[in-house]
Design brief:
mainly alpha; 381 residues; single chain; two-stranded antiparallel sheet; 6 strands
Length: 381
């Protein structure tokens, strides 16, 4: 007999007083995307019975599925405009996975000269492993399809050396990030998705028309449709923040011919000069950026007061990683991945707030955040 969907939904959402094995099973499933073995289930249940849910979650996190399914899905949405999570492994997610395995402060991955790739001497997959190339994703596609244990084969390297660029800034200059957010356009997409990925906020939510527009580019019309009020009441609200930031990527582009991120030190990429509709607008001459949202309604994000301006992507990434909202955003993302829902009610929001504080206190240890989040999901059941 088929159960009516309305009844089934109520049954699934109703609170259930699960025993320790039920709790252990769900905890393992959420952290690894798969069921535990009988031995692991028994060990986890015993830890939960003793009041050590975090110990049970740590045990679950030793399963390959934690890095290769849960963490991979967590980061995959950050690598494409549609925020799809079911995408193939790439250099961005491999770097996140390696960083989580090694316990690196997650914020550092936004500004350190680092990338993770497979060590060919440790690789035991059935498919020949291509060497890493900044011009394609073949190295990571094979890793994804070969059955190789990422925890065993991934090693940390200097991104600037392997990606053939003088300056590299971790996730923000990976090939996956560049292909998605630096191709075409004028690098404003990189700013927008940095806000989405690391502050969980789109530009429209940050619109503030009270901020000065002294760095808004020449390609932004000040009188669109012969109506200056459109610019003053709408366009300016986003560009007065976005354009102040986009100089960070002024020397970066994703080249359609070579298929790689290119860095031209001291030379602003040509697309920054496209479409000079308003000649008196800001003309980008270097890679300087400034935070025009340090005051006004967006001050609520808790920007670091000692990083209000800088040069290049690394300083921009460091600024983001030291913003209070960054910690909250990572907690929201992890809560959604592990607890399978957004934090919408007051109870969930309180949990996210506490997780954000824990994440900051742990020196932004993402693995710890996943473990604590999983146990908080359990506590609400």
């Amino acid at each position: 007999m088929k159960i009516p969907l309305t009844i089934l939904a109520l049954t699934l959402s109703a609170p259930v007083l699960a025993d320790e094995k039920d709790q252990a099973y769900r905890l393992h499933n959420r952290l690894t995307c798969e069921a535990p073995s009988k031995d692991v289930l028994d060990q986890m249940a015993d830890l939960i019975k003793k009041g050590d849910s975090e110990g049970a979650a740590k045990l679950a996190s030793q399963n390959r599925g934690f890095l290769e399914c849960t963490v991979k899905q967590w980061c995959s949405g950050q690598t494409n405009k549609d925020q799809k999570i079911n995408v193939k492994l790439n250099d961005y997610c491999a770097t996140v996975i390696g960083g989580v395995r090694d316990g690196r402060p997650f914020g550092e991955l936004l500004y350190s000269d680092v990338i993770y790739m497979a060590d060919p001497n440790k690789y035991k997959g059935t498919i020949p492993l291509p060497a890493y190339s900044p011009a394609n994703n073949d190295h990571y596609l094979v890793l994804d399809n070969s059955g190789a244990d990422l925890a065993e084969v991934l090693v940390e390297k200097k991104q600037s050396e392997y990606a053939q660029m003088e300056k590299a800034s971790g996730l923000l200059t990976t090939r996956a990030f560049g292909e998605a957010f630096l191709s075409l356009g004028t690098n404003r997409r990189a700013v927008r998705f940095s806000m989405i990925n690391y502050l969980c906020t789109d530009l429209e939510q940050m619109m503030d028309t009270t901020r000065p527009d002294t760095m808004v580019g020449r390609d932004v019309e000040r009188n669109p449709g012969s109506d200056a009020s459109t610019y003053n009441n709408k366009c300016k609200g986003c560009h007065a923040g976005q354009d102040f930031f986009r100089g960070a990527w002024a020397y970066y582009d994703f080249d359609a011919t070579s298929k790689k991120v290119v860095y031209t030190p001291g030379s602003v990429v040509k697309k920054y000069s496209n479409n000079p509709y308003f000649i008196n607008g800001y003309f980008t001459t270097d890679d300087s950026w400034a935070n025009n949202w340090i005051e006004g309604q967006n001050a609520k994000f808790g920007w670091p007061q000692n990083l209000t301006k800088g040069n290049g992507v690394a300083s921009f990434g460091e600024m983001l990683s030291k913003t209070e909202e960054f910690n909250t955003c990572m907690a929201k993302r992890t809560f959604k991945t592990v607890c399978l829902k957004d934090a919408t009610d007051d109870t969930d929001k309180k949990i996210v707030s506490e997780l954000a504080a824990d994440f900051k206190a742990s020196n932004q240890n993402l693995k710890t955040l996943f473990i604590k989040t999983a146990t908080r999901c359990q506590a609400g059941e």
